[in-house]
């Protein structure tokens, strides 16, 4: 049993790396998606809305399979890890788009009006007045998105990325201990999620001060 | 295009929200230093008219002029944005619900726009904020957050924030309507001070006494038209239109 610990720790590291990269890509897609959804150009609004409904409306696993197994057919060659990060990141971005957009539109419209009345441009009003306020509102719900995304990294086991879930499955064969293997993976997920959750709560408290 | 000699001129303003025509061919001019009150029942288009002046609600027809410049010019989007931002810097606006920026201190509320738009240094902006806040009696609260202020204090800060841009014209949309009665006076005092300094103002208000005391001219609006306008003595004492009389009668009864 002890023999497997180093492999699990290494796998946990891969899960963490996956999570971090997915979160970064997700936040980027989410910010762009929200900007598109709130754009004054209907084409961009349409693209943003299509992005959200496409990626929220189909299973993440199918999206991963299309990217990883179907990609080569249309000239997209990615290794499993890359496909995992991109697939999960773009998927998470669809959820984050709605989170960020929600936080932005929930700011009272009087705030934008007051800013514009002073002569601030659209962008200045967003940057100086709306975003700082919506930032405070979006940290917690983005935390929920990130929590979901960490758990969703388990899906990439299905395209053989050697992360926690894949590692647990792999060592069932040699140890004949599925209960312990999956429990161990579960505990490691929990530790990761706990630490990230604490970090987000800390960030949330920090921005709320005032 | 015709030359504009009046300081503020609204020519044939027309505004529809879809099917609903809210402003029906309204014209109005205001001289430099003049104070005009707009009164009228709720829903008559007072806010819409005020918000059209700085293009917060764009007119569907008509022209707005300020000091010889057309405010609602016909320009391609990008150029128009630049133009309107410059115009808005010259038009201060005070809202019923203050709309202070809650994430900024009183000081930052006042300094933000001058620093961002007029390139003032931090020191210059601070000096300006202190001067403007002193003017409205809010200097002691300069480092407070809006949430720590009463409604009357918030509104005074909102006035200081607008004045810090050194506007040529101030618009007030029911600046005291959201205040507890005992806080109304402190805001009215500030507006009176501005009147004494000959600030050009257009004031939408429900306070007839204040309008009578401060304004040079009163407009009575109903259903998107100016029913009657004139000096306060005439509008309040001997209005010529039946609709005006009825409104004032109801208003007096309501106030009792
Ligand atoms: N953004 C809007 N969309 C649709 N209708 C509006 C909008 N703003 C105002 N209205 C309508 O225009 C009319 C005049 O409103 P407003 O100018 O706020 O009146 P007042 O300030 O005199 O109470 C009302 O019937 C109101 O419902
Ligand atoms: Mg109104």
The whole-angstrom Rg of chain B is 18 Å
Helix content of chain A: over 70%
The helix/strand series of chain B, from N terminus to C terminus, equals: EEEHEEHEHHHEHEHEEHH
Main beta sheet of chain A: strand number and arrangement?
Answer: none
Overall 3D form of chain A:
flat
Radius of gyration of chain A: 20 Å
Shape of chain B: globular
CATH H-level homologous superfamily name of chain A: MetI-like
Number of β-strand runs of chain B: 10
Computed structural class of chain A: mainly alpha
Number of strands of chain A: 0
How far from one another are the termini of chain B? 50 Å
Distinct ligand kinds = adenosine-5'-diphosphate, magnesium ion
What would CATH call the class of chain A?
Answer: Mainly Alpha
Strand arrangement within the widest β-sheet of chain B reads 6-7-8-3-9-10
How many discrete structural domains of chain A? 1
Question: Can you write the helix and strand succession of chain A as a string?
Answer: HHHHHHHH
**Percent of sequence in beta strands of chain A:** under 5%
Structural notes for this entry:
The complex is a heterodimer of chains A (210) and B (256). Chain A is mainly alpha-helical. Chain A has one domain (2-209): MetI-like fold (Orthogonal Bundle), CATH 1.10.3720. In chain A, 80% of the residues lie in helices and 0% in strands. Chain A contains eight helices and no strands. In chain A, helix 1 (5-37) packs antiparallel against helix 7, helix 2 (42-56) packs across helix 4 and helix 4 (80-105) crosses helix 6. The termini of chain A are far apart. The model of chain A has no long low-confidence stretch (mean pLDDT 93). Chain B has a six-stranded mixed sheet with strand order 6-7-8-3-9-10, sandwiched between helices. Chain B has helices at residues 46-53, 77-89, 106-118, 122-135, 151-163, 181-196, 208-214, 232-237, 242-255, and strands at 8-17, 20-30, 35-39, 61-66, 69-70, 91-94, 169-173, 200-204, 217-222, 225-230. Chain B contains nine helices and ten strands. With 256 residues, chain B is an alpha/beta fold. Helices cover 41% and strands 23% of the residues of chain B. Classes of the chains: A mainly alpha (210), B alpha/beta (256). The interface between A and B is medium-sized, with 20 and 26 residues.
